[in-house]
Write a structure and sequence with these properties.
By secondary structure, this protein is mainly alpha-helical. It has a domain at 27-82. 48% of the residues lie in helices and 0% in strands. It contains 3 helices and no strands. It has helices spanning 27-62, 66-69, 71-81. The chain is flat, with a radius of gyration of 20 Å. Residues 1-23, 87-106 are annotated as: Disordered. Belongs to the complex I NDUFB10 subunit family. This is NADH dehydrogenase [ubiquinone] 1 beta subcomplex subunit 10-B. It is found in: Mitochondrion inner membrane. It is a peripheral membrane protein.
Length: 106
């Protein structure tokens, strides 16, 4: 007899019965929607942290060539941090900094 393997399944989609026009109509759906938004926010924050750690590693390893070698990570990190964080949902994108276009290597 071995151990039983259990796999935890999470429902990653927003609730189907949530009505944005009248959010207080169904309090359970409102709380599920709030949990969904918070979960998505935390995923975005943790993704940005992972990219930041990769960028630090790239700067440290590449040394003086970090401007060319780590450019793709810089673009990914800037795009991942655009609008990420608490209380930044309703700020205009102009306050988050200019959008950096990816430059292809020639």
């Amino acid at each position: 007899m071995g151990r039983k393997s259990f796999k935890v399944e999470f429902d990653e989609s927003p609730p189907d019965d949530f009505d944005p026009a009248n959010p207080y109509k169904d309090p359970v759906a409102m709380l599920e929607m709030r949990e969904h938004l918070v979960r998505e926010k935390w995923i975005d924050i943790e993704t940005a942290k992972i990219l930041r750690d990769k960028l630090r590693w790239c700067y440290r390893i590449e040394g003086v060539n970090h401007l060319q070698k780590c450019r793709h990570l810089v673009n990914q990190y800037l795009e991942a941090t655009r609008g990420v964080g608490w209380n930044k949902d309703h700020r205009p994108h102009s306050l988050h900094g200019p959008k950096v276009e990816s430059v292809e290597a020639e």
